[in-house]
Amino acid sequence: MRCKLVDVFSKQKLQGNSLAVFYDCQELSKRQMQAWTREMRQFESIFVDTSVTPYRAWIFTMEEELDFAGHPLIGLAYHLHELFGVPDETYTWSIELNQKVVELSSRWRGKHFLATMHQGAPEFIHTLTSKQSEPFYAALGIEQLQPQELPAQVISTGLPYLILPIEHGLSKVSFNTDQLESMLEQYQAKFLYLIDVNNFEGRTWDNLGSIEDIATGSAAGPVAAYLYQQGLTTQADISIGQGRFVDRPSEIKVELKCVGSEIVDAIVSGYVTHVGDFILSD
């Protein structure tokens, strides 16, 4: 079995969000996919079968399978372009996941590789009141930093995030709960994303606060939709920074396609850098 290691949302190695792309792995069960993800100890891994059309992919964290994620799909585009493409051409790829088909595109821009993902229209699931938001700020140890005029919202483009706004103080986070998952479930959210609305920089974690994600493509569409809907930007092109607090600076670009005031597509893009190729014994 073969595996490719790439860094996603960065032009440089050892920055951005690392990803293991497993291919030549059609015979693996989901249990084995989960075991290989734990072995590689990546925040997420992606497994792809290119013998079918559209290509079929499965995404795993070290804890569970996900129906959708961002940086694994952006990273997968690099593998597909290298396997089937010509460097100077632009390609589109259709990827079937558990619940949806995602459209990717890829091209080389000079010496850097750029991949793009269409996440579709954002779904605005819940808008929390100030009182409903309070426990989430308290869970992060930043209750004194809760803005009074900006609501928290649950938004999804495939994976529902509670978007929690903050005006400053990203460095002050200190987890005070092991109940975040059940708290989020009340509002149909899977994860929480904390966004500095002044600097467009974010942070997110697993629900125990033990692992901080480096660059979260699945949250980028919802975050950009939040910023736009709340009037925090009038630009349809938004750049989100992440990863600074784990020494893996990353940049995620989002282009919002709108018809009137309605967002009809969130297009997430980022650079991908090749790190290495491996042959694994099964």
Automatic annotation (TrEMBL):
Transmembrane segments: none annotated. InterPro entries: Phenazine_PhzF-like (IPR003719). One of its GO terms (molecular function) is isomerase activity. Coiled coil: none annotated. The active site is at E44. Pfam families: PhzC-PhzF. Belongs to the PhzF family. This is Phenazine biosynthesis protein PhzF. It comes from Pseudoalteromonas byunsanensis.
